[in-house]
Amino acid sequence: MDSKELIELRQDKNKLKQMYKICKPKCFAFMAKCFGSQSMDDTKMFTVFNDAVIVLYEKLEDPDFKLTSSIQTYLNSVCRNMALEGFRKEQKLYKTTDRDIENLDYSDQVTDVLEEITNESPYEKAINKAFAVMRNKGGNCAEILTMFWYQKASMEEIASRFTYTNAKNAKNQKAKCQKRLKDIALQFERN
Amino acid sequence: MKVITEITKNTYELTFNSEAEYEWFQIGRLFIESDDIYKDLIENALIKKNKSKEDVLSWRDLFFMEIAEQNEHLDDQNPLIKLIRTLPLFISNIKFINNLPKATAALGREILLDELIDNKNADQLIPDKLIEAALKKKSRDDLKRNFEEWNAEDEIKTKKLNSKRSFYAKYIAIAAIFFIGLVLWQPNKMSDNQIIEEFAYNNKVFENILNGGILKSKLNSGLRGKEYNFKGLTARESKKAKEAIYLVGSHEMLAAKEKLLNLDIENKSNNQLLFFLAISQAYSGDEKKALDNLIELKKIENSLLLEDVDFQLAMLFIKINKRGEGKKLLNSIARKPGKYQSESEKILRKMKWF
Question: Which GO terms describe its molecular function (chain A) (predicted)?
Fold first, then answer.
């Protein structure tokens, strides 16, 4: 898959959705084959698969990210990594029917897993609390900021999503939301 | 400098919600160099006197936030930019801006998955439907083959009887065969699968679950301005939980289950939503988990959901071929007055004898 296609996948939600639907059953089958239904039930597979798609989505943002295999193969590998990591964390024994896993050489494999969101500094914690307050109070601010900072959406896309008349209005709204978030975070930091 | 001029002008319009013709670059420069920005702007007559100090400070805040956001694209060699980067206001804003992608990641991931999963006609549902249809067709074909075999047997028996038995004996035998066929066939009865399809989550049952409209009015309360939030859930999570309940009501169990699992309902101490999760699990292939959740819910004393839990447990027992336990539970529901009494009586009447 070339870089143009990867960019399209990041920018076009329909393409991402299409990929999600096509890859999901194959990833489930792959996990079932690797670990068996005793070790992984549907719910677990569902969580792992969703996390793997997020890993891919966030990787697409990285200009150095290159996909040397197909998306399906990449997602399978990430699912396998994350399932194994999950077993390790839970200290759970698993049976595998996949010889590749038994002889897994990590230096030669895709090792991507979902980056955990941790808030270590008091400032990070304050921003997160402020963001939670903003979400709970309702309104569009939390989603506007998320579209801009996480999804890297353009002002035109934000305007269209929230039915602002033009990109300039969306930009104004985003700036107001951002300032509000900063003010709330400041209060949390002071306390 | 063009960037400073534009940012000063744009943030003015944003703060005061109006356009003006000022010396934007000079104002921007003062934002960077002045220790008392309000005094300097007024004394130098750079803005009209009717602006409050608070608004001017807010304007300067927005100016520095915008500068911080465009930091990567600013000219590193420009002395003014070099100066900006040493200012505490800039430093605090750049710190804030750098944290935003991380702060929005959790919600971003959640929204992304919602968008990918949410689709009433999602392709992921098709295979299940196809399998269901294929199984239905196969069992119908099997049944038709059985009918043919039974008819053939009847014909052979009838011929034998004709030749060997007396006139009266022949009719007695036919009557006996007809009776046995009737017992096997039970024409007025429904199979367990049919019972589940018709009764387990029909509109009446769903209305019962919504507690005669009490929960329904809460679910619709957002239309009148005040949203109803579920215990232990944020406003956004509650919105999703409501969507999941509507999915259960429209029999889209897989989508409902995925939505509720995404909300981590099993760890949220919300019995009402756990109950909806159990229903969605029961009819999307997770019968064991549904059973575990319903049994947990049944343990709760004085629960308002007790009748609903009992009825759904009975249905689930029938679904997993524990029809004896299902029947027993239905009999106990049918014996006492309650919202599932008539429905349970009806099911018991329709159930096959064995």
Answer: DNA-binding transcription factor activity
The whole-angstrom distance between residue A51's C-alpha and the CA centroid of its chain comes to 6
Q: Compare CB distances from B95 to A21, A123, A146 and report the shortest one's residue.
A: A123
Is residue B227 less than 8 Å (CB to CB) from chain A?
yes
Query: What's the rounded mean pLDDT across residues A170-176?
Result: 92
Are B179 and B300 contained in the same domain?
A: no
Break chain A into its structural domains and give their ranges.
3-108, 122-190
Q: Does B130 touch chain A (CB under 8 A)?
A: no
Contact B104 A146 (CB under 8 A): yes
Q: Which residues is B190 bridged to in the sheet?
A: B351
Q: What is the pLDDT of residues A111-124, one digit of tens each?
A: 787 877 777 788 88
pLDDT value at position B304?
80
pLDDT, one tens digit per residue, over B112-122 is: 887 787 644 43
Residue ending a domain, among B185, B217, B233, is B185
C-beta atoms of A150 and B107 within 8 A: yes
Q: What percent of chain B has pLDDT over 70?
A: 74
Report the C-alpha dihedral over residues B141, B146, B149, B155, rounded to 10 degrees: -120
Interchain CB contacts (distance < 8 Å): A and B: 103
Between the ranges B122-131, B145-154, B225-234, where is the mean pLDDT highest? B225-234
For residue B115, being part of any structural domain is answered with: no
CATH of the domain at B248: 1.25.40
Residue A85 in contact with residue A113, Cβ under 8 Å?
yes
DSSP string, B89-118: HHHHHHHHHHHHHHHHHHHHHHHHHHHHH-
Helix (H, G, I), strand (E, B) or coil at A110: coil
